Amino acid sequence: MIEVKNVDKSFDGNQVLKNVSAVFETGKTNMIIGQSGSGKTVLMKSIIGLHRIDKGRIEYDGRNLPDMKMNEIRLLRREVGMLFQGSALFDSLSVLENVMYPLEMFSPTSAEEMKERAIFCLRRVNLEEKAFGLAPSEISGGMQKRVAIARAIALQPKYLFCDEPNSGLDPKTSLIIDQLIHEITHEFEITTIINSHDMNSVMEIGENIIFIEKGVKAWQGNKDDIFHVDNQALNDFVFASELYKQVRKVNQ
Amino acid sequence: MKRVFVLPDRRKMFFRQFPKELEKLGLQSLPIVAIISVFIGFIMTMQTKLNTSNPLLPVYTTGLVTRDTLLLEFSSTILCLILAGKVGSNIASEIGTMRITEQIDALEIMGVNSANYLILPKIVAFVVMMPFLVIFSMGLGLVGGYFVGVLTSILTTGDYLVGIQYAFVPFYVFYSLMKSMIFAFIISSVAAYYGYYSYGGALDVGKASTNAVVNGSILILFFNILITKIMLN
Q1: Rounded distance between C-alpha atoms, residue A213 and residue A33, angstroms
Q2: pLDDT the model gives residue A252
Q3: Are the beta carbons of B105 and A84 separated by less than 8 Å?
Q4: How many structural domains does chain A have?
Q5: What pLDDT digit, counting tens, does each position of B208-229 carry?
Q6: Do A77 and B108 touch (CB under 8 A)?
Q7: Tell me, what DSSP letter sits at residue B8?
Q8: CB-CB: which of A74, A89, A90 is closest to B111?
Q9: What are the backbone angles phi and psi of residue A188, rounded to the nearest 5°?
Q10: Which domain holds residue B90?
Q11: What is the mean pLDDT of residues A33-53?
């Protein structure tokens, strides 16, 4: 479980996060949603430690991140997997080598066991074996996301962060990636935090949703509650598309 | 700097990366070094001969001037200025692209010291390779000068060979190698700095590459004066 308590973060006097508190539960797909510029990416990067917060606590199962020294942060990060918006696969390595990379850096196992683990992860994300030897630039965007998920889970992380996992993907592939993240979260009991503004993802896998508006946590709930909330900013966000306006009409 | 010059997390990974960098930064620079050195050696010999036509000058003058110019300045300073363009832009754009495509963030999230993992093998490989490139350039520059004797009638190969052996100072080679290793450090570290701290998009990576080349070149010229003052005074 990750707990964020009274977090403030500003850049050059511009306060981006204002007293944000939230709980991200283990074994659930926790989602941070909000409009572009609302502060959700800053919140996620602050939780990971890529931004140093001005005030507050970020507790990983009781371990407060801002109190940690650099070497402690680096040890903690070995418990973290991350899926980046652009996949962030290493260009110079093949698909299989990308997944083996964290294992080679930090796993004490033999080369053979590492390879077995990497192949297991790639098979778990349903990647075809013929793609294992290809370079990241030779596979599709959806496949790159799968490889990035495989790399993120290679070291069996306790915490998984996904930054806009569906960005640049078609609706069908987006759904597959969402379901994959959801399955992996439950299968391996991971605390997963997804940063998204894709309402389809929210409705598909949002078990614990945090809505950020202008740097403030404006709402927290789950996908079943989100249609019945009396919050203008959240309603504007959720019902921005014609499809969801129709859904609301049907519900009413 | 502090994060770059620490022992690697996994030495195995460093020694896997190191030969790749030797090949990329060093061996792949051989063709450009060879072409430039031969042509500059050739033209330097020709120009020296054509512009020193006084009959009172000894026959070895052309060879001696060519050799000392190659040893003292061309094969170290000028070569490094050329390599600042090739290698400097290569390092800055590679690391800069990794930065903007979040590959460096991915390394950091994994708990890897990204500065050490990405930059240290490049700096070490380039500093190690540079003396070999300089010696290679010196040799081919002298060969280029020899071709003036073979292909033209302005100079005999005999006079040239006497000239390049006359009053040879071995310290000049040492001075040149020392200088080039310092320049190699400057080129690779300045380029890595601009690449590592680039942000934004493709245009910004381009700017980082340009800054790396320009600032690396200026530093080389500045340090050239400093090192010459210290070592040859």
Answers
A1: 9
A2: 66
A3: yes
A4: 1
A5: 999 999 999 999 999 999 999 9
A6: yes
A7: -
A8: A74
A9: -105, 10
A10: 11-232
A11: 89
